[in-house]
Amino acid sequence: MTPSTEPPRRRRADAERSRAAVLDAAVRLLRRRPDAGMAAVAEAAGVTRQTVYAHFSSREDLLAAAVDRITADAVAALDAAALDEGPATQALLRFLDASWSAFEDNAWLLQAPSAAGPAEPDAARHEPVTERLVRLVERGQAAGEFTPGLAPRWLVAMTVALGHAAGDEVAAGRVPGAEAGAALRTTVLRLIGATRPSAQEHTAATKRKEVA
């Protein structure tokens, strides 16, 4: 059977696998070489530059797809953090740790202006993350762990803004990543009115997560 007579479903599946392979290679490469171009991505993926352009019309298109992939991975990490389980304060720490880890692994990609795209698509990317945080804040307020009276979406908007500010400081080289992550946790806990768990409790929770 020649390529032209292959069933359309098989051709689509082959194209999807090819696109995914190129995107995987691009994300890995751009983490190490933020300035890598399409030719370097093609080399990393083991395909021709024409193949890369067949899936992504421009470097900006490729960057946007990479950010979408990273966002999907971050959402999966948040779901794995079991945000609906246990005390809300502990769940909030797991949320912050997972989201900051995703940023540290992909700082340049997530900060790149050309990758962010228009404001509306960028907001749509954030929505799965913010919705999970809204539910967590609502749960914490209902349980009396977080300060009541303030709208959950307002607290979430402030938390997201703090995360962006921390990311900007790291990207600019003004604050080390670990220091910014720790400061972000402390500031968000104070913003939401949560009582920070002891170091022993946080360590125990982390070990339980690793064992699970």
Automatic annotation (TrEMBL):
Keywords for the protein's UniProt record, in alphabetical order = DNA-binding, Transcription, Transcription regulation
Enumerate the spans annotated as HTH tetR-type domain.
16-74
Q: Which InterPro entries match?
A: Homeodomain-like_sf, HTH-type_TetR-like_transc_reg, HTH_TetR, Tet_transcr_reg_TetR-rel_C_sf
Q: What Pfam families does UniProt report for this protein, alphabetically?
A: TetR_N (PF00440)
**UniProt superkingdom:** Bacteria
Q: What SUPFAM superfamilies does the annotation carry?
A: Homeodomain-like, Tetracyclin repressor-like, C-terminal domain
Alphabetized GO MF terms: DNA-binding transcription factor activity; transcription cis-regulatory region binding
User: DNA-binding region(s): which residue ranges?
Assistant: 37-56
- Supply the PANTHER family for this chain: HTH-TYPE TRANSCRIPTIONAL REGULATOR BETI (PTHR30055:SF234), HTH-TYPE TRANSCRIPTIONAL REGULATOR RUTR (PTHR30055)
This protein's name: AcrR family transcriptional regulator
Organism this protein belongs to: Streptomyces spectabilis
